[in-house]
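Quick one: structure tokens for this chain, please?
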Amino acid sequence: MHTVLLSLAALLGAIPERVEWTVDGAAREALVAAPDTKSAEGAPVVFVFHGHFGTMKGANREFHLHEVWPEAIVVYPQGLRTPSPVDREGRGFGWQRTPGNQADRDLKFFDAMLATFHEKWTVDDSRVYATGHSNGGAFTYLLWATRPELLAAVVPCAAPKTDITLAHPLPAMHIAGQQDRIATFATQEQMMAMARRADGCADTGQEWAKLCTLYPSKFDTPFVAYVHPGGHIVPKEAPQLIVRFCKEHVKKSAAQAGK
């Protein structure tokens, strides 16, 4: 069970506003930016997950997707204190890494947030997306593994190797830094290879944007590798490219998928 509190400013939209939930007895929160005007088809939703030791405010500053895509409901959730390979005492805020970890508290939080947006706004279910940096990128992969039917596309950024299984193809873009010393580029290459296999992608790709290679898919779920020369960062060009990629992918209905 979950409860939720929304401020008047959050209901009216404009700038990101703090929204609170109670999920399985735990207090949860996110910054939510919603469009001022409603469209007949509903608004897309973009979830943006911070990395370990990060915050929702930091994700807001790094990604600022609500500024790039003001027509979307953009959500910057706040993680809870979480043990990790680099923080075994769990001092930093983060996200579960595998199915069942932390009693699935963060998957339940995702479900609660999406349910609230359906209650408060008109949501376009064919345009629900997830992105995130580092541990948030790994959680984005976990959403692909566990909630693929709810998502139109995902964009993990600097995501470390995660023990998951991708059983359903889904359009994806992975942002990786060649000089990343936290989630090493070699381990991110393993994640990208797994994603391409899940998407049934061709072995060779074509330029999609600067530093970005698109691999066509036999399932019409292409994969884009955005490989930059930097480290464990969100590149300054990333927000615009994330929004461009999301806009290119709308989830097909069951009838369309069968054609």
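The first helix runs from residue 8 to 12.
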